Amino acid sequence: MANHSQFGFQDASSPIMEELVEFHDHALMVALAICSLVLYLLTLMLMEKLSSNTVDAQEVELIWTILPAIVLILLALPSLQILYMMDEIDEPDLTLKAIGHQWYWTYEYTDFKDLTFDSYMIPTTDLPLGHFRLLEVDHRVVIPMESSIRIIVTAGDVLHSWAVPTLGVKTDAIPGRLNQTSFITTRPGIFYGQCSEICGANHSYMPIVVESTPLPHFENWSTLLSS
Hints:
Layout: H1 15-47, H2 52-55, H3 58-87, E1 94-101, E2 104-109, E3 116-119, E4 141-144, E5 149-155, E6 160-164, E7 169-173, E8 179-183, E9 189-195, E10 207-213, H4 215-226
Parallel strand pairs: 1-5, 4-10
Antiparallel strand pairs: 1-2, 2-3, 5-8, 6-7, 6-9, 9-10
Helix pairs in contact: 1-3
């Protein structure tokens, strides 16, 4: 989760988030190169006088036409690769349905017969010592680690958005529409997110908590909860 005065992204906990962080660094280096080139040319113009040969040179026109195209290609290729990776949902190990309400989430494990629960934020007055304010819930989403998880997202009233930054997941919850995405957690842990679409007065009180556990622990949890 994010820490106080943190500079940078949260630690990536899924392959998609790792790719997003790498693409961010790649795009940042491209932007840095462009800024350096512009600064160099501005300095050159201030320090030296330009001749008519420099202004009218066809070589210069060729460069400032081709160079932006190359930059766009350098950004587009990895971006398209990540987009296709995020849309790929191939034989998931577990399917989870998240339904947004004002102002809580309902989760349904569709691979199980009766595994459904509501997830509400724990009020600050009831929060145990050492837990995180405005982020803890009474029922966490528990998933098996290193398994392909498909999540189907919708809403029962207004627009919501199911987002967990450390997993690289953000899917809009729209009434009457089913959106889906997939992710894989690469390590055990507890990952925090929040509703990322303004949905009313208590929008900031719709936290999301995902707990990634080894498969035996998940099986024990699902058996206990569905019994």
